[in-house]
Structures are given as C-alpha cells and as structure tokens.
C-alpha cells in the first residue's frame, strides 16, 4: 500500500511538473548539450521531446481536450522531424493515445489472458498526418533492415548505406506497429528485414542457461501461486545481449548493455507479432522464422536475468538509466511478463527506483533526472518515469510461447 501511494503521488507530481514546463508556443524544452546530428535546432530534438511529453501526459489520463494537449498537438503538427524513428514513432504513439486513452492502458487491469487493442478511427486530418509519419519512417529504413537517426545513405556521421543502430530501430518498429494498429498499411517485409537486422546485431554466443517462462498473472499484490512456472534446461538458451551498434569502432557501442538488450528484445517482440499476423507466410516459413525470433527473445531475457539490476544500466552504470528502465517497461508489458528470469519483479523493483529518486524539492520538484548521459535530462526522463509507473505500453496480444 505504501508503494502504491508513492506511485500515485509521483504520477500526480510528474504530470503537474510536465504541464508547467510547456512553453507558450505549445512545445516542451529541447535537450541541452547534445552533439550535432543533422544540422540546425533539431540536433536538440525539440519536436521529439514534445511528442514524448504528450505521450506521457495522455497515458497518465490527461484528457485529450485538455488545453495543454490541444496546444501541444497544434505545435507538433507544424514541425518537421529530421530523425527517422524517434520523433515520428513517438508522435504516432501519442496520436494513438489521444484517440484511445483507455485502450492505450490495456494490460493494467490485471487480466491473465493477453488481449489486443481494438482498432481506432482517426480524423481525416490526423489520418493524413499519421500516414505521412509512417511513410517517413519506412523511407529511413537502411539497406540492412535497421534504422539510424538520419535517412540512409545520407547518414549525418558520414556512414555508408546500411548504417543502423538497435535503439533507433526499436523506436521505428514501435511507430510502425502503432501505425498498423491505426489501420495504416505497412508491408510485412519492413518487419521481416528489421528482425534480420536485430538478430544479426545480437551477440553470437553466450553462457548456457536454464529457461524460466511464465505467463502473465494478476498484477495485484497476491502471493505467488504454486505451479505457475515452467522451468527447465532445454539446452538452447544462451545469455546473448544486444549492443548499440555491433560493428562500430567505439568499444562502448559494441558492448551489450541492459538498455540495448531491452531495445533489441522489444524490437523482436514486435516483429514476432507481425509474423504471427502475416497471412502471406506459408506455414513452414512462419514456423522457421518464429523459431529464430523466439530463440533471440529468450536469449535476450536470459542476458537480462544474468546481468540483472534496476539501479544500473549494466555494464554502463547509471548512464542512460532512465532510458533502460523505460525499455524494461516496454519489454515487460509487450512480452506479457511479470518476472524476468525466475524472480525479478521488474515493475515492483523499478517502481521503487522511480519513486525514491523523484526530486521533491527546488525548482525541479516533481521531475526525474537519474541518467548520467548528459546534463539537464528532465524533459526526457520525467516522461520515461511516468510511462514506466503507468505501465503505459500496449500489449501485443501474444504471450511468449504462443504460436497462434
């Protein structure tokens, strides 16, 4: 009960702080002191931060007709995104939450059975906008099936065609999945190519481990029922994480981390859900692809179990900790899991971190800045905290282990 009260208090404070941070034009502040990428003010991700703020507020049940939401979308609709995934994808997710606020909270009702959200109907103007954003994401897909910040091959860092990273790919896939739910056509090939890219990025091998799988249970604080777990050493699973960029010259980019492993597994979960729904796949081909995808997912979960922490983005300390925890929320909800491994209650443990580390005094009271990647990250990490505490991601409708 104490933690539940703390969670609701933090959500209330975080929403109030985020609304207060809205600028007169309807936007939210850009990030500070970021390296140049793409040129101009967009280096600081001004539209991207505004889309993220709108998404968080809507998921925290701020009504779509609230003036801050209306003004935010009016500003956002006038902006251009120079990034191919983050901004377009987050805007699509915010649009979905605007039209289906209750449906966007699917999975918070404690139901054991997975369920897919119902289709929604956009207004004509928003449908055109959403289709434009979807086209931009698809147009930025690199030759190797992944995404980077800028469109390939004109990568702003001078990269060759095919340059992509796991993080941007995850966001692009979230945007495409959202677009698909909203009735915007997305060819299955885009997801299939992305799955191939992610599986190629994953570590080639790892330590053999026992598998522990568990279907979703009621999210209320009930004692753990006996006989709800299936455990066994199947001789297949390995602790294989995901790096940011497998073949990059920077060692930290090539190193698997908790944040990137969450991103890789989330991307694979989305691609798996699309493969399950692809009516054009033959039975044998579907079974073959699903087997590879599911092994990738299980191995990623095994890596997270072996390197478990909610206080650190292992092995990188607190760098990008907020991003990691938000990634953990996406993974937990989309995979329909309460536990990672045999007993890591990701939400319970993560919620304790967020509630204990909210700023309670000063001008930034009600915000979070728990990552060490760059200064002044409140505009980014406060939405992350709210989205985590609300379990705001949408269930895909397929629990791990289900084949149809």
Give an account of the 3D structure.
The chain is mostly helical and 404 residues long. It contains 13 helices and four strands. A two-stranded antiparallel ribbon has the order 1-2. Strands 3-4 form a two-stranded antiparallel ribbon. A hairpin with a 3-residue loop joins β3 and β4. α7 runs antiparallel to α9. The chain is globular and about 55 Å long. 48% of the residues are buried. About 9% of the residues have low confidence.
Secondary structure elements and their pairing?
Blueprint: H1 2-20, H2 46-59, H3 67-76, H4 86-99, H5 124-139, H6 166-181, H7 188-201, E1 211-213, E2 230-232, H8 251-254, H9 258-277, H10 283-306, H11 321-334, E3 339-340, E4 344-345, H12 346-356, H13 378-389
Antiparallel strand pairs: 1-2, 3-4
Low-confidence stretches: 33-43, 104-113, 214-221, 228-233
Global morphology = globular
- Helix percentage range: 40-55%
Cα-atom Rg, whole angstroms?
A: 20 Å
The secondary-structure class comes to mainly alpha
Q: Largest beta sheet: what is the strand line-up?
A: 1-2
- Main sheet characteristics: 2 strands, antiparallel
Order of helices and strands: HHHHHHHEEHHHHEEHH
> What is the terminal separation in angstroms?
38 Å
Helical run tally: 13
Give the total of beta strands.
4
Write a brief caption for the model:
With 404 residues, the chain is mainly alpha-helical. The chain has helices at residues 2-20, 46-59, 67-76, 86-99, 124-139, 166-181, 188-201, 251-254, 258-277, 283-306, 321-334, 346-356, 378-389, and strands at 211-213, 230-232, 339-340, 344-345.
């Amino acid at each position: 009960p104490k933690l539940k009260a703390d969670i609701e208090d933090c959500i209330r404070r975080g929403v109030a702080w985020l609304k207060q941070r809205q600028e007169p034009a309807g936007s939210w502040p850009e990030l500070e002191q970021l390296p140049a990428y793409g040129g101009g003010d967009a280096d600081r991700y001004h539209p991207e931060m505004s889309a993220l703020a709108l998404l968080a507020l809507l998921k925290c049940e701020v009504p779509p007709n609230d003036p801050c939401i209306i003004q935010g979308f009016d500003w956002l609709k006038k902006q251009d995104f120079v990034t191919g995934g983050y901004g377009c994808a987050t805007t699509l997710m915010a649009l979905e939450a605007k039209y289906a606020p209750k449906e966007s909270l699917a999975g918070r009702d404690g139901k054991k059975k997975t369920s897919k959200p119902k289709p929604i109907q956009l207004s004509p103007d928003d449908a055109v906008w959403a289709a434009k954003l979807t086209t931009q994401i698809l147009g930025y897909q690199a030759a190797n099936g992944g995404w980077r910040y800028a469109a390939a091959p004109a990568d702003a860092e001078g990269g060759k065609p095919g340059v992509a990273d796991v993080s941007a790919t995850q966001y692009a896939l979230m945007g495409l999945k959202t677009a698909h739910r909203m009735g915007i056509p997305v060819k299955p090939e885009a997801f299939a190519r992305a799955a191939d890219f992610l599986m190629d990025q994953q570590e080639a091998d790892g330590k053999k481990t026992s598998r522990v799988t568990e279907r979703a249970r009621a999210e209320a604080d009930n004692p753990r029922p006996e006989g709800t777990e299936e455990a066994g050493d199947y001789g297949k699973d390995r602790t294989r994480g995901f790096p940011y960029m497998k073949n990059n010259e920077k060692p930290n980019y090539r190193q698997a981390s908790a944040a990137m492993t969450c991103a890789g597994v989330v991307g694979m979960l989305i691609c798996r859900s699309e493969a399950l729904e692809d009516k054009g796949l033959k039975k044998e081909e579907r079974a073959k692809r699903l087997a590879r995808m599911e092994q990738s997912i299980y191995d990623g979960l095994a890596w997270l179990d072996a390197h478990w922490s909610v206080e650190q983005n292992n092995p990188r300390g607190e760098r990008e900790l907020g991003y990691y925890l938000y990634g953990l929320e996406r993974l937990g909800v989309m995979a329909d899991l309460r536990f990672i491994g045999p007993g890591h209650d990701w939400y319970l443990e993560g919620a304790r971190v967020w509630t204990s580390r909210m700023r309670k005094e000063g001008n930034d009271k009600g915000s979070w800045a728990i990552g060490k990647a760059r200064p002044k990250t409140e505009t980014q990490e406060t939405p992350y905290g709210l989205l985590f505490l609300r379990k705001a991601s949408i269930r895909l409708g397929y629990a791990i282990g289900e084949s149809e």
